[in-house]
């Protein structure tokens, strides 16, 4: 099973800061424990720079990948201001976040739209990182398992079984994103086991190997408990990915937790 540590920078950093952070993360990940895939998802203007600097980590044997935070669901056309999957692919971008809760919350994105994006990403040989997760009310009223299952079914309905090898899922309870509240390791483990079961029901046995990442206020001081859980295969990190020391500490924590 792959272990992945992905950093979602959201709408942060200017170009100078982006170069400094990418240089530090890619350079220093060479000294981190091996076996963890390192993924950075900077804003669109820095993707080419990230592809160039990820080569430094690749040269020393780290599986380093670059992800976009978003893509359009159509291949090309008159969609002013949008960025397409073929554009990302032609830059050397490896992956793309899909249905992040901030896209759902602020831009009205649905899982039907996510299905279209996933279809295109797979067609272009990229890895969709599909985000799912319940809101506060759904956690409190106990509907969270049903909500997440519905999200996954909506996004994955048309995915071919052979393509599950290129899918990554991130469980991000909306109430934990950027709030300082984290799911307990047991809450996260229970949901990750539910997600894995759902993936297998939708996509068959091959879907059992889909990495399921945890996201939501994951920091160096709470990561160990989460990463040690059997169905947690790494993290999707927001705030703590903006500081090289913290992100590197999380790579190390993921590597340590997943050592055989
Ligand atoms: C995220 O937005 O993907 C995320 C996990 O953010 P944070 O770590 O800041 O909660």
The CATH homologous superfamily is named Aldolase class I
Q: For the terminal residues, how far apart are their CA atoms?
A: 11 Å
Specify the structural class: alpha/beta
Number of strands: 8
How much of the residues is beta strand, in percent? Answer: 5-15%
Instruction: Enter the CATH topology name.
Output: TIM Barrel
How many structural domains in the coordinates?
1
> Shape from CA axes?
globular
Give average pLDDT, whole number.
Answer: 95
User: What is the name of the CATH architecture?
Assistant: Alpha-Beta Barrel
Report the CATH C-level class. Answer: Alpha Beta
Identify every distinct bound molecule in the structure, by name, code or SMILES: phosphoenolpyruvate
- The ordered string of helix (H) and strand (E) elements is EHEHEHEHHEHHEHEHEH
Major sheet summary line: 8 strands, parallel
Q: Rg, please? A: 17 Å
User: How are the strands ordered across the major sheet?
Assistant: 7-6-5-4-3-2-1-8
Task: Characterize this entry briefly.
The chain is an alpha/beta fold and 260 residues long. It has helices at residues 15-28, 47-59, 85-91, 101-107, 111-123, 136-140, 144-156, 185-203, 220-227, 244-257, and strands at residues 3-8, 36-41, 64-68, 95-98, 127-132, 168-171, 212-214, 234-237.
């Amino acid at each position: 099973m792959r272990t992945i540590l992905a950093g979602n920078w959201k709408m942060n950093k200017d170009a100078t800061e982006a170069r400094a952070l990418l240089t530090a993360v890619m350079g220093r990940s060479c000294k981190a424990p091996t076996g963890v895939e390192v993924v950075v998802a900077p804003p669109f203007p820095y993707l080419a720079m990230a592809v160039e600097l990820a080569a430094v980590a690749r040269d020393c044997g780290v599986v380093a990948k670059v992800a976009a935070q978003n893509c359009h669901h159509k291949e090309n056309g008159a969609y002013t201001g949008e960025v397409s999957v073929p554009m990302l692919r032609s830059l050397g971008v490896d992956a793309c976040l899909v249905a992040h809760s901030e896209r759902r919350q602020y831009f009205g994105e649905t899982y039907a739209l996510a299905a279209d994006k996933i279809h295109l990403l797979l067609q272009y040989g990229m890895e969709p990182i599909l985000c799912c997760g319940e809101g506060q009310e759904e956690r409190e009223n106990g509907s969270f398992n049903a909500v997440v299952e519905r999200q996954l079914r909506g996004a994955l309905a048309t995915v071919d079984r052979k393509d599950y090898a290129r899918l990554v899922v991130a469980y991000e309870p909306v109430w934990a994103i950027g709030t300082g509240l984290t799911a307990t390791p047991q809450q996260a483990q229970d949901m990750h086991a539910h997600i894995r079961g759902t993936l297998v029901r939708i996509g068959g046995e091959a879907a059992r190997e889909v990495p399921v990442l945890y996201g939501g206020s994951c920091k160096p001081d709470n990561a160990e408990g989460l990463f040690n859980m059997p169905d947690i295969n790494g993290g999707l990190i927001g705030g703590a990915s903006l500081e090289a020391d913290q992100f590197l500490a999380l790579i190390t924590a993921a590597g340590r937790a997943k050592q055989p």
